[in-house]
Amino acid sequence: NSRRRIIAVDFGMKRNIARQLATLGHVDVVPAQSTAADILAMEPDGVFLSNGPGDPEMAPYAVESIRGLLGAVPVFGICLGHQLLARAIGAATVKLPFGHHGANHPVKNLLTERIEITSQNHNFAVSADSLSGIATMTHVNLNDGVCEGLAVTGANAYSVQHHPEAGPGPHESAYLFEQFHARMK
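Now predict its structure.
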């Protein structure tokens, strides 16, 4: 595979994510507190925003860093990374009444009209109503209508709420890593 340089920002990243990213190129994992300047100085071909626990509102340092990356490099986020990307573009996040946990959550890809069976583990979500004019919702949870994915308007950045790297687990969303690879070309 290509030797693209991927910077993975670790907000609580699982090992399987690093394995998935390593199939796309060389991966450097950096701490959550890394600044945009620190990351861009490493001359990445793409930046990955990892999953992790907690309330995205409690990580303003990450939101600021992500703002500095937008437009400079392709960005792909999952789970907490999805929520932080949304906050970086001015969208809101909300606490879910019960959260989404476990496997077998049906998610519709609004771009392809395909249904994906996903693995999830989060208590917060992106408010779909807050995306107007700044991002397009790309995926929706079929159980409750929660925003499961977005593409940032005017930037090479996208994210999903669920875990496309889940292993063992559903693999319908594995194509998201290939999309990240294509965006880095």
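The longest strand covers residues 93-109.
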